Structures are given as C-alpha cells and as structure tokens.
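Hi again,

Forgot to attach this to my earlier email, sorry! This is the prediction with NAP bound. I've pasted everything inline since the attachment limit keeps bouncing my files.
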Amino acid sequence: MTAPQSAQRTAQPTPSNPAASAATEASGPATEVHEIVTISMIGVGNMGGAIAQGLIAAGVDPQHLVVVGSTPESTERVAAKFGARAGTAAEAAACDAVILGVKPAGVVPLLESIAPSLGAESIVVSLAAGVSLKKMEHVAPTAHIVRAMPNTPVLVRRGATALSAGRHVTAAHMTAIKHLLEPTGLVIEVAEKDMDAVVAVSGSGPAYIFHMIDAMAEAGVRLGLTRQVALDLAVATVEGAGTQLRETGMHPALAREMVTSPGGTTAQALAVLDRQVFRGIVGDAMEAAAQRSHELGKN
Ligand SMILES: NC(=O)c1ccc[n+]([C@@H]2O[C@H](COP(=O)([O-])OP(=O)(O)OC[C@H]3O[C@@H](n4cnc5c(N)ncnc54)[C@H](OP(=O)(O)O)[C@@H]3O)[C@@H](O)[C@H]2O)c1
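Structure tokens for the complex follow:
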C-alpha cells in the first residue's frame, strides 16, 4: 500500500490525483496544499459502494483505493467488485483519506479502534447520519474528521454531499476533501447544526423522488400507458425538471408557471395537489426525517 502522504506538498489535481488542492483558493495565493493520493473505505455497502463507484468513474485509480469489510470474505468481495485493494482496518487508517461507510451505530467503535493507526495527516470522512463530530472527536481527539452527508446519486456522479469540518480540520484539508468528492456531484459545506436538515432534503431526498416517480408511472399505467413507457416518461420528466432548474437558475415557482396555462390541464392537476395539501405532506415528511436524524444523533 502506498505510504501516507505529507500534507504540505505542492501538487495539482490530476485524474489519478484528484484531490491535490490549494488551501487558500478562495482567499489569495496558495500557501498550504494538502494532497490526497491514497483513499480507503471501511464499510462498502450501499453508500460507500456508490461513492467508490463514483470516484472510480471520475478517474480515481482503484489501486489507490483500499477497501475493508466486516470480514476477510466481504473485504475480498468488495475489492474484487471495484478492482480495489483489499486491506485491513489498520492499513486503511494510514491512507490520506479514510472514508467510514459503516452504519451509524458502528462509527464510534470503529473510529476508536483505528485511531492509533491513523496517519498524522489522514483525514477521516464519516458518512454516518446522526453521528456528531463531538462524539467522533471524543474517541479520536487529535484526528482530522469531516462529517459528510452524501446521497445515493453519487453512484452516477449526480449526488449531493454536505460537509462539516471537525475542530482539527484545516482549510487545506477541507478543500482536498471537496476536490476528492466533487466528481461525484454537488459538494457544499454547511454548519454541523444544519446536518439534520440536510438529511431531510438531500440525504433521504432521492427516496421521495423515487416514490414520486413510482406513483407517476403507476398512474400512467392506470391511464392506459404501458408500464415501460409510463416509467420512461416519468424518469425523463423528473430528470428534465431538475436539469432545467439547475441550468437556468430559475425559481421553481416561475418554472411551474411556465407549464401552467390558465384553465389548462396542469392547473387542474395542481389544484388537486393543493387540495390534498401536497406541500404540507412533503414538509411533514421532511420534518419527520430531520427529527429521526436528530434522535439517531442522541443514541
Ligand atoms: N444509504 C443512504 O442513502 C445513505 C445516505 C447518506 C448517508 N448514509 C450513511 O452511510 C452509512 C452506510 O449506510 P449504507 O446504507 O451504505 O449501509 P450498508 O449498505 O449496510 O453498508 C454498511 C456496510 O458496512 C460493512 N460493515 C459493517 N461493519 C463493518 C466493520 N466493522 N468494518 C468494515 N465494514 C463493516 C457492511 O458490509 P459487510 O458486513 O458485508 O462487510 C456493509 O456493507 C451509514 O452510516 C448511513 O448513515 C447512507
């Protein structure tokens, strides 16, 4: 395995070195640069696997990715799946970026066990919902820890990931992690207090949209379309609507107005959604998700 990399080197981002980054790109000349070459992932399930796939699709050399599962067998299985290197937790801890993809309940015990093996400049990135930086820093007091909340579309490089920096994370560390994850989609930094809201909007968000697409497709079938045509139309509609908002910067209310002719079909449909308090249902669902994220954080 490649040895842990030093933090204070100059390097430029390249496909095999995606996260070499200047600390001060927003605030003046680059004085401090943090380079990420070796990446590890401990816990490669739905989310970790989606990120691994997104990173590899973006040009990360799978041989620079060390993966670790809960058993030697599962480690070998995920290594073979991604063409990555099978490693131990201690080897993974020595990498430049150490991504923790285990379930929330497993994060603190795992971090406690790998803390002595972390490289001096390793950056730990926890994907876990509801596990605070404070809890993680309690068991790894000197570690550079970033809390991340990604979502599953990172799989196709159209994800949305929010990051919050721990107390030993420098601007250079943060920039390096942003550069590492940017090929998987939008990456934004938020205050940790906003993470429950992030879970409600983008972490759990893909599930609401999948639910909506499924409902639209089912209704299309009831109206006489074949299942495949109804699904293809619903997926293309959601994809197109999102792309339209992103590429035009248009407010959703204005975009909705463009589709809604007076006395037309869309106006009739929107009136039904409003009578069924669509916004209230979406809002209540998201508040429930945020509340659950908050509760998970207390455990
Ligand atoms: N799914 C989402 O949409 C989503 C979104 C945002 C954040 N997250 C966060 O992502 C994390 C993972 O969620 P997930 O949905 O990907 O769960 P998951 O599919 O169950 O993946 C967790 C993986 O961790 C492995 N594992 C368990 N204990 C381990 C250990 N001690 N060492 C190494 N590997 C271990 C398990 O694999 P083996 O036992 O087979 O090795 C399993 O594949 C969670 O903390 C969650 O909060 C998930």
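The first strand starts at residue 21 and ends at 22. Residues 42-48, 68-71, 74, 101-104, 106, 110, 127-129, 149-152, 203 surround NAP (CB under 6 Å).

That should be everything now.

G.
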